[in-house]
Amino acid sequence: MTPTHPELALRAQGLHVSFGDLQVLRGVSFDLARGEGAVLLGANGCGKSTLMRALNGLAPVASGQIWLEGQAIVGAPMRAVRAARRQMGYVFQQFNLVPQLSAHQNVLFGAMGQRPLGVLGVMNAFARAEDRERAMACLDRVGLADRATHRPAELSGGQQQRVAIARMLMQAPRLVIADEPIASLDPKAGREVLDLLWRIVEEEGLSLLCTLHQLDLAQEYGRRLIGMKAGRIVLDAATGSVARAELDALYTGAARVDATPADQTGAAA
Amino acid sequence: MTHPDLPPRFRAPSALAWVLMVGFAAFFIQGLYGADVSLDRLIRGASNLVRFVSLAIPPDFARWETIGWAMLETMNIAIVGVTFGCLLSVPLALLAARNTAPNAVVRVIARQLIAIARTIPDLIWALIFVVSVGLGPLAGILAIILDTIGFAARFYSERFEEVQKGPSEALTSTGAGRLSVIAGAILPESFASMTATSLYSVEKAIRSAVTLGLVGAGGIGVELSTAMRLFQYDQAAAIILVVLVAVIGFEQLSTSIRKRII
Predict the structure, then answer these.
(1) How far is B169 from chain A (nearest CA, A)?
(2) How confident is the model over A91-142, as pLDDT tens digits?
(3) CB-based contact (8 Å) between B169 and chain A?
(4) Which of A25, A119, A127, A128 has the lowest tally of Cβ within 10 angstroms?
(5) Best residue in A81, A85, A98, A170 to probe B by mutation, most B CBs within 10 Å?
(6) B95-126 as b/e: b if 16+ CB within 10 A
(7) For B95-113, what is each residue's pLDDT tens digit?
């Protein structure tokens, strides 16, 4: 029996994910302690997003196992997968707010998985008074209480991402997965979102796994850096002990999972 | 000096293109021949048309009360039929769309049902329902329901498939169930387009409801076919005018509603 390690927020072991013939994850293993914040780095196409989707059960895992708070997820019944998802807040690059609904309604949806009636329990018209209040408090915490009735299109990119963070707060997770949360934002808005995300994660004592493309920001915010290359983890260390050259090496040579031998020699040259 | 790889101006059509072109031409010529088009017939037709118009003018509104009630019945058939048709289309479209269907078998069955509803024309549905539930508006309503499903369910399901994945995934990632994700993300995102489709269904249904009367399925079509058969062209003209006003009026209304939502 593999130990379940309840003291860890997250443990992934030997994860393999394939799409058709393409092997995207080729044996990924790592642990994330409770309250730990790690930044995941890697070139486009190296499998970062797939790893994050696999952790949430959005991408099918071919082999390997994931434990969230000691509970195995891969191969678990749907009910258990949903229970795991409730513990896991997800922040997306494209915010993924429902465009036709107000900021407040989008935040309320964060509690969708926790209400027995699902969507009926979190629709503004039928939601419990305390849920409506709490959604407002979450918006207030990201500094957007005055935008509660605005639709996403009426907000800037940075504001939309903050609404998405409020939705994640509403979910009250134990672990946060942020997939390139600032890749669609300008540098100033990006920094504001990162500050907010890190502050909330620290205040709530959450664990965080966040992908970033800016090495400077990664070194500034992350205490631990995990580097991926061509579907494998090739670097995992405390931020202070990693040389810049090691990080740069993540982006050269055969970094992509779909790289052909010609690409690899070309890129390495 | 021309470049050796210069593309030619024309490319010879493929064998398949030839077969299709010759086949089309043959079918077209046979069709013209079969319709027995001759100058003589066209001239006679034109003079008949002039006679019809001269008999139809001025339109006779003497039976306005009957015509009014019949038009109201037509609108009733259309509205009741479309309402049930659109309501039934939503679950059927959800079962038929790739991203919301529970599995492939259900999806194929739902698609086939929608295809059957669409392929059989509304007049034939009306004939079938006149046989099964008898003459009158109920047969018309049932025919409109089926006709609306064939149209609306198809467009709804295409719209569901076009919905961006992100918001649904975000809700799935909170641990929400499938139905909640559909109601929370996919339906709101499709709402504007579904409303437009539904309004268009009403326009279409009013037009069909007029003709359904011709086979006895209730509404103003019954009056129209009677007037035509009795050569009361002035009464027929009055009925056609009422239909025109009703259809154009509703089209204006639905256009202005559509503009507001989209």
Answers:
(1) 8
(2) 999 999 999 999 999 999 999 888 888 788 888 888 888 999 999 999 999 9
(3) yes
(4) A128
(5) A98
(6) bbbeebbeeeeebeebbebbeebbebebbebb
(7) 999 999 989 999 999 999 9
Tell whether B54 lies on the interface with A, counting CB pairs under 8 A: no
The pLDDT value recorded for residue A134 is 92
Tell me if A86 and B179 make a contact (CB, 8 A cut-off).
Answer: no
pLDDT in the model for residue A265: 45
Residue of chain B with shortest Cα separation from A170: B174
Q: B252 and chain A: CB distance < 8 Å anywhere? A: no
pLDDT at A47 over 80: yes
Residue A250 phi, psi (nearest 5): -65, -25
Q: Which of A94, A109, A114 sits opposite B184 (nearest CB)?
A: A109
Average pLDDT for B30-58: 84
**Buried-state track A3-19, b at ≥16 Cβ within 10 A, e below 16:** eeeeebbbbbbebbbbe
Cross-chain Cβ contact B167/A98 below 8 Å: yes
Task: Establish if B177 touches chain A: CB-CB under 8 angstroms.
Answer: yes
Alpha helices for B135-219 (secondary structure H): 137-148, 154-162, 165-172, 178-181, 187-212
Q: Which residues of A touch B179 (CB under 8 A)?
A: 118-119
CATH class name, domain B64-261 = mainly alpha
Separation in Å, CA A18 to CA A233, B52, B222 = 16, 72, 64
Report CA-CA distances (Å) from B90 to A117, B98, B154, B186. Answer: 20, 14, 10, 12
B163 in contact with A, Cβ within 8 Å? no
Q: Look up the CATH number of domain A1-87+175-269.
A: 3.40.50.300
- Whether the ipTM is more than 0.90: the answer is no
pLDDT at B186 over 90: yes
C-alpha span between A83 and A90 (Å, rounded): 14
Residue ranges of the domains in chain A?
1-87+175-269, 96-172
- Cβ contact (<8 Å) for B175 and A83? yes
pLDDT at B261: 75
Longest dimension (CA), chain B: 83
Phi-psi region of B134 (alpha: psi -120 to 50; beta: other; left: phi over 0): left
Give the DSSP H/E element, type plus range, for residue B119.
Answer: helix B104-119
| Interface mutation target, options B100, B159, B174, chain A, most CBs of A under 10 Å | B174
**Nearest-CA residue of chain B relative to A119?**
B180
Distance (Å, rounded) from C-alpha A211 to C-alpha A13? 19
